[in-house]
Automatic annotation (TrEMBL):
This is IS element ISDka1 orfA, putative resolvase. CDD domains: HTH_MerR-trunc, SR_IS607_transposase_like. The keyword DNA-binding applies. SUPFAM superfamilies: Putative DNA-binding domain, Resolvase-like. One of its GO terms (biological process) is DNA integration. InterPro entries: DNA-bd_dom_put_sf, IS607_transposase-like, Recombinase/Transposase-rel, Recombinase_CS, Resolv_N, Resolvase-like_N_sf, Transpos_IS607. Residues 62-205 form the Resolvase/invertase-type recombinase catalytic domain. Coiled coil: none annotated. PANTHER family: PTHR36172, RESOLVASE-RELATED (PTHR36172:SF1). Gene3D superfamilies: 1.10.287.2170, Resolvase, N-terminal catalytic domain (3.40.50.1390). One of its GO terms (molecular function) is DNA strand exchange activity. It comes from the Archaea.
Length: 214
């Protein structure tokens, strides 16, 4: 079987060194490389095993913690999320690269913390993203984000399976935000039809909440 050959950047990511260090190691003869017919440099995978003592899985795992709440009056919950997540990473032996937080709806795609997380992922500076619940990262389309991150070798770890009971109120608020957006498109921003639609929609949600509590 032919040995797998790694691009220099791939080798650096697995071993956990910078490209500058890699070039220095090559010049010093600490890393063996081969040249492709086109002259490109490649590193045999056996070099990874040699440098990491035959245990590439022992490489340090870089983690980014991400926590989110919808409103500023939930700051205590945000702090609890961060505490749980950092303790989890410590127990797993992960090195926390950054702790990112957002106070915004899970529907917003321009969250500052989320955009910074994307930058970490595409620049391959993280191995795992840790969240408490799936909806902390995004209310809809979690599977799309999971697939996107995976293309950069990043996995998402959700440490709690079930959503908290107090998340119900937040979900209702997000549903109202969605309904407001669609109503604006259907009836116009100032239309009396939009206002009546939203009033009826909110009334329906209240009836559903009453039915669940009875």
């Amino acid at each position: 079987m032919l040995e797998r050959l790694l691009k220099p950047r791939e080798f650096c990511e697995i071993v956990g060194i910078s490209y500058g260090t890699f070039k220095r190691w090559v010049s010093q003869g600490r890393v063996s490389v081969v040249r492709t017919p086109s002259g490109r440099m490649r590193v045999p995978y056996s070099e990874v095993e040699r440098i990491l003592g035959g245990r590439p899985e022992a490489r340090e795992v870089r983690a980014v913690v991400y926590a989110r709440v919808s409103s500023s009056d939930q700051r205590s919950d945000l702090e609890r999320q961060v505490q749980y997540l950092t303790q989890y990473c410590s127990a797993k032996g992960y090195r926390v690269v950054d702790v990112l937080t957002d106070i915004a709806s899970g529907l917003k795609t321009d969250r500052r913390g989320l955009l910074k997380l994307f930058n970490y992922v595409v620049s391959r500076q993280v191995d795992v993203v840790v969240v408490t619940y799936r909806d902390r990262l995004t209310l809809f389309g979690f599977e799309y984000l999971e697939y996107f991150f995976k293309q950069y070798g990043v996995r998402i770890e959700v440490i709690y399976g079930d959503e908290p009971k107090d998340a119900h109120r937040e979900l209702v608020e997000d549903l109202i935000e969605i309904a407001t957006s669609f109503a604006g498109r259907l009836y116009g921003l100032r239309s009396h039809k939009k206002k009546r639609f939203l009033e009826e929609f909110k009334k329906l949600l209240e009836e559903v909440e009453k039915g669940e509590s009875s």
